[in-house]
Amino acid sequence: MSHLLQSKPVIHVKMKLVVLGGTGQTGQHLVNQALQQGHSVTAVVRNPGKMTVTHENLKVVEGNIFSEESLKPHFEGHDAVLSCLGFPTSFFSGVTGYTQSMRATLNTMRETKINRIITMTSWYTAPGSSDNGPFFIRNVLIPMIQSVLTNMYEMESILTKSEGIDWTVVRPPGLRNAPSTDKDIVSHEGYFVPDANGLPTSQSVARGDVARFMLSLLGTSTWLKKGVAITTK
Question: What is the enclosing helix (H) or strand (E) of 101?
């Protein structure tokens, strides 16, 4: 079943958020929008100098996303974790960053009594889910990024088996380096958003709209413990 998130204003409950990947292209949109909505943000980053956002409710800290010991002091006292972490593809060895960082994140969340996490992966993470996609996607793009998709899928599997954690996996298609728009966001439980014929709509989405959707999930039970593909219309 597909759902529609309209661009009308919503009431935001102010929360204390941990953001992982906050210096990335999507992460900076997420941090900006979270602050605009009145949230307090702690951005745990590898290189604080890369953070271009400044705000009285933003705390930028250096941390190791693979280390529970490093993450714990920055997670304490927060309400939720949002992750826009990304790791490069590898042709010679498997990608492991998604699973390694998620294991450390979940263990730290349990230690600090945080039970809500919203994380971003991609369309087509599950094996075979791109079989009905466009020729270029199936035969060119997927083989190029398969190591990333495989580890994303392994990370999603870790979340589905986690106990005591309210998780949501947000799966966007191709990402455009653009701010949030006023377009409605279509969401669908699964590995892509289908058209009227059940085939992937094969669209891209603005990074700012991905951030907008992730933040819209805070304080609601919508898409709790589910993986949801999104696009805009």
Answer: helix 97-111
